[in-house]
Amino acid sequence: MPKPTILLALDPHSAAFCAAIKRQLQEFPAEQSCLIQTYTLTWDGQTFGFSGELDQFADTSFDLAQTHSKQAYVSKIRTQFSEATGELQTALIELLKTANQSKEAIAAKRQGVEISSTHRIYLMLSVSNQFTRGVVFEIVRLIRWLFSKYFTDIPYSLEALLLLPGLFTQATTTDYGAAYAFLKELDYKMTSGVAITGTQKAPPFDNCWLMDEQIGGLKDNLSSYADALAGFLTVEPETNGLLIGTQKVRGKIPAYSAFGYGELFFAGETTINRLSAALAADILMEQFLPKPEFTPEAIRKCLLDAKGFVLSEDFSNAFLGLERDNGKPVWQDFNPRIEMHTGQAQEYGMELQRAHRQFENKELLSYKRSLENCCKQLQATLTAFLDRTINNYADATPRGLHEVARLLNILTFLYLELQTDAIGDQSQNLVTELRVAEAFLDSRLQVTINQEITQKLLNQILSLKSRQQQLQDILGERNSEEQLQELQTTQKQLDTAIADYRQGLNAEVEQTRQIRFIAIADAREQAAAAIVVAQNHLTAIENQLETATDQLNELLTEENQFRSQYLVIYPIFIATALFGLVVLIGIFNQSTLLLLLQKFWANLVSYLLWIAVTILAYLGILWLKYSTNIRGRIQKVQKQIKRLESTVKSTIVELRRNYNEQLKLEYDLYAQNLRVEALNYLIKTVKQRAETLRQTLSNLSEMYNDLVAQRDQATTNFSEVRLTVLTDADIDAYYQSFLTTLKTETFTQERISRSQSWKISAEAFKNQLIPFTRQQFEQLSNLSIGEVLNQSDLIAQNTANLRLNQLYNSANLLLRIQDIDTNLNPTSQRETTLWVGAKDKEQIFAFYSRFSRTLTALVAEDEQRLCVLTRSLGFPAYFLSQIEFYRDCYERTQSEQIDEDENIPDLIPEEIGSSRELKLAYQTLLLAIALGLLSQHSQGDYQFNGRSIGKDREEIALALATEFTFEELYGNLDERIETFERDFIYHKLQELGTSASYLNHYEGKLLDHLLSEYNPLN
Fold first, then answer.
1. How far apart are CA 233 and CA 240, in angstroms?
2. Percentage of residues of the chain with pLDDT beyond 90
3. What letters, b where the CB count within 10 A reaches 16 and e where it falls short, cover 794-833?
4. Are 793 and 737 in contact (CB under 8 A)?
5. Which distant-in-sequence residues (6+ apart) come within 8 Å of 220 by Cβ?
6. Phi, psi values for residue 210, rounded to 5°
7. Residue 144, C-beta contacts closer than 8 angstroms, at least 6 positions apart
């Protein structure tokens, strides 16, 4: 059952330790960790207080040297604290209330978590810190008094977490001496108690937990110690049966305990994160990010692919549809239904001009709109073709994304000619197609481009490239300084030629654009001029036709007059004259008339023949005159009229054609612009796609780097206390075996292909990749720690046993204890408690029962954690393995301790103290100095019989007591001292006391003891 717990740090180093514990508690089950509140005691030299902002007051250096200058007298600190208890009382009450009234505790209660009514309060302090020694017992008194007055219904335990000096850096003799002084006072108060009320006394702590540098210093092993304390606070079992003071050992109270905590857990989430990140990174590297080849063959292939793109049927057919609307040609010739009537050339020209304007404003505009629609369709078709090409390239090989990005760069490279290695190689891309499209009307516009300069520079570049390749081949066979210099010179020439070519080509392109601009203006002027010329010609011909027609009419009138005069008038006149003559003869001479009639009748045939001959001769004379005078002129005029009529017709046709050509010129120029626009759009789209691909590759590369970082961050290296059953090496080995069952291309087959990757955002890609990779390892999240240990593909059996052994070793006590007087200490309890999931309890208990007979196994809710807590409960302070060293430091710095220490019993029973031998050796050394057995050299060395034994008296005494090489010297000194009279010795000791001002405080005490021992009056 989780208990409300308060962890209170009393000094900056403890505050830093508590802050680390607070951070580590986030890794532990929330039921108990959420009930642990951490605070620190604050003091600015004047005012005391409590704060939950541990980092603000923490000293993470864990360097005791930095605290020496800040130390104050213990008595002064106690006085200041006692004066401030009135103000601290309210703050401490509020602090104690947070144990079960914090937000976390309230939330746990609402979730149905059963919380113990017993509160735990831990005071953490550095035992060498004089400040903590000055305040700790006053805080203890205040806490116990508050519980006796305001929290009487709440059972609680008040325990100390004592940090020994070995945990800190730069611990000096003074620090160890201060620690011993504190432990002496604590031991004394644990026996006698501290005053709670007027008559009530109680031990300051229910238990005192000691920690030293068992696994190293705090600064370098903070996470390990924090894990141990966090685990200790969250899984600590009850300490029932531990009764402090009921049984003493050599008169010393067994009030101290030590613990060790170890945890072996299966970091399922971390393991899955590492595996999924590794798999995702490999998928990216193997299926999306392989670098393309940069061999000459690969570059030539890319150039051929670019040429194939622009020469493909899809590309060509797309442009064929630019001037076709629903399969029909967009352009329809200008052909108005206007007929020209004679003499109306001017009116015809005006009607034709009106029809031209109407066609230009209506039909031509409609054609342009159709071209616009066709251009949009062309752009869509080209874009779709481009996307299909990109997709095909991307899906072709794992290098597809890089290769298609390179292809797109080639398609839009301005100076493609520079990529060729031989004269005559006609590489093509969209830029070359754009130049061809821009020159589509050059022949019609009579535009001639002078490419002599650029062609000459290109030939020079190709020649230099060939020479460069030859030199490289020669250098590959043999290294020659001359060839190397020539190669460098050739490279410089090549760079210069390329720069000149680019500059020349840019100038040529600009010049060509200006020439085309002028040519288009000239073509428009020529088309308009041709219409004017045709119209004027038509008018002139029409005028000539009218004149010829008038001439013809005059000749026809003359012809009619000729015919009527010679064929009608003259014959009628002659006939009338002859008839009148006959009538006159008949009137005046009838006989003559009859005679003539008879004669005529008799010679009728002859007269008829003469009459016929006369008529024919007359008609012949008339025809000859008609043919030579009138008929020739009429035929000439008629021919002229026919010629003029033909000329009018041809001029009308030419005028219509000129109007049509002018309109067709505007149409062709517009279509040309749209063709160029479509290619520019495609080039722009290709550049956009290339940028998209570059961004995609950049995003994928960044994602790969993030995944590699996530894999590295998903480490199982936690601390020496919290161990993971699977190390990074185990996880990586499992991953390598896993790759044999799942190929990385599965992702591109089932989720996102390379052709889809560049069309979606990086976030969308990641949202597909991460779930896919996590899904491959999701089954691991449900494994208990026992199942992990038994799963051979995850961990070998010998490695599993090694992990369990490491766990047991990591749970060793965080305090070095010497095994003395264990038979005299029946209350001391050393126990090991194991927390394991129900399904793994039998397996794990069977393994660990071989190590400890007192092993207790408890069922844990978390099946992926295996926790071991080792505790040694209830031993006296002198069980510390370094207690003799502590006392020695204390004695050497006793002048710096407070006077109260004189009346406090020593921690170590006199009968077992190993310092007795050191004390006797030190006394022998002082006796030898006083009696002159040891002489001091001018350089400060002490000598005996000419043998130098050192300068430092403390080190000499320690060597006499502990080192084998000094045993003989030690015996000789004792023998020589025994030869002197006691009175003489006392006299010499008095002289030493008055003359030897260099003796330290400890040596002064020893000298006083010797004077007392050799005093003749005693």
1. 16
2. 25
3. bbeeebbeebbeebbebbbbbbbbeebbeeebebbbbebb
4. yes
5. none
6. -105, 145
7. 158, 194, 196, 202
Sheet holding 935-936, edge to edge: 935-936, 942-944, 947-950
Residue 913, pLDDT above cutoff 60: no
* Strand partners of residue 39: 8
d(CA 947, CA 942): 8
Cβ within 8 Å of residue 699, ≥6 positions away: 762, 765
Q: What is the pLDDT of residues 307-334, one digit of tens each?
A: 999 999 999 998 888 888 888 888 888 8
Question: Which uninterrupted H or E stretch holds 175?
Answer: helix 173-192
pLDDT at 594: 81
The amino acid occupying position 402 is H
Q: Are strands 207-211 and 119-126 parallel, antiparallel or unpaired?
A: unpaired
* Residue 287 burial (C-beta neighbours within 10 Å; 0-12, 13-18, 19+): buried
Task: Say how far apart CA 344 and CA 643 lie, in whole Å.
Answer: 18
φ/ψ of 108, rounded to 5, equals -65, -40
Give strand ranges (E) for 515-626: none
Look at residues 886, 870, 721, 811 and name the one whose alpha carbon lies nearest to residue 166. Answer: 886
pLDDT at 130 over 60: yes
Buried b or exposed e, range 206-215, using 16+ CB within 10 angstroms: bbbbbbbbbb
Query: CB count, 10 Å around CB of 169?
Result: 14
Q: Which two tokens stand for residue 855?
A: 């092993």
Rounded average pLDDT over 857-884: 87
The burial class, CB within 10 Å (0-12 / 13-18 / 19+), for 486 is: middle
CA distance 300 to 421: 10
Point out the least confidently predicted range of 300-304, 420-424, 990-994: 420-424
Distance CA 325, CA 225 (A): 82
R_g over Cα of the chain: 61
What are φ and ψ of residue 1015, in 5° steps?
Answer: -65, 125
Confidence of residue 10 (pLDDT cuts 50, 70, 90): very high
Which residues of 83-127 form beta strands (DSSP E)?
A: 119-126
Give the Cα separation of 121 and 156 in Å (integer): 7
The token duo for 872 is: 């040694």
User: In terms of C-beta density within 10 A (0-12 exposed, 13-18 middle, 19 or more buried), how is residue 653 classed?
Assistant: exposed
Q: Is the pLDDT of residue 902 over 60?
A: no
State both tokens at 328: 């029909």
Q: Identify the CA nearest to 390 among candidates 373, 407, 412, 372.
A: 407
Residue 252 three-state SS: strand
Q: What's the pLDDT tens digit per position in 517-557? A: 998 899 889 988 998 898 888 888 888 888 888 888 888 88
Cα-to-chain-centroid distance, residue 244 = 59
CA-based nearest residue to 542, from 339, 346, 338, 337: 346
Question: Could you give the CA distance from residue 20 to residue 229 in angstroms, rounded to a whole number?
Answer: 10
pTM across the whole model? 0.71
Contact 202, 918 (CB under 8 A): no
The angle formed by the CA atoms of residues 421, 426 and 432, to the nearest 5 degrees, is: 115
User: Which residue in 255, 260, 261, 156 sits closest to 827, CA to CA?
Assistant: 255
**d(C-alpha 61, C-alpha 126), whole Å:** 14
Please state, as a whole number, how many other Cβ atoms lie within 10 Å of the Cβ of residue 414: 13
Q: How confident is the model at residue 69 (pLDDT cuts 50, 70, 90)?
A: low
- ∠ CA(805), CA(809), CA(812), 5° rounding? 155
Contact in structure between 259 and 871 (CB atoms under 8 Å): yes
60 in helix, strand or coil?
coil
